[in-house]
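task queued by scheduler; priority normal; single chain, no ligands, no partner chains; default sampling; output format set to structure tokens
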Amino acid sequence: MVTFSFERALAGKGMGRVAGVDEAGRGPLAGPVVAAAVILPADCCYVLFQDSKKLTEKKREELFATLTGMGIPIGVGVATAAEIDAINILQASLLAMQRAVLELAEPADFLLVDGTFAVPLKVNQQTLVKGESKSASIAAASIVAKVTRDRMMSEYHALYPQYNFQKHKGYPTSEHRNLLTRFGPCEIHRRTFSGVRELLDP
């Protein structure tokens, strides 16, 4: 259950700007990994924000509009498919998170990070496994990251309509795999991922 208890406890220790950090897009065969960092105000209606994976696309869009309309610090970071291939998906995810935190209009006093790996920054932080189900700030970040990435993939659909990115967003669905076999990888496919590298010219 999503709570605001981590944020309140940290605020009680003098850390008022607690940023939730999460990413979207580790599993797809194509496109970037996108991370977000969000600092929710103490008086927010935190129960609104839930794990993005448990929300419909319409609800995610509504909450994204709510978050961006609150005038709060929100940072977004992206690591491209080329960067994923160069440094691996874990390091690219952490790089995207680092970029998201650095994009915040106000520096965070503390980071609540989804997962088991800390963001490579000299900021006090705590990792939380399945954090988007425990911390409202991480849940809010998961919504921003997911909506931002989905919109990017819809834009890529206009460039590469043969893959139908607007539907599967680059995830390894049977449709995507069939289209990938038919047309071969494009510039935004992750060449080091199984399901793509086998289709590359030797």
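post-processing summary
- DSSP finds seven helices and five strands in the chain.
- Residues 13 and 33 are 33 Å apart (CA to CA).
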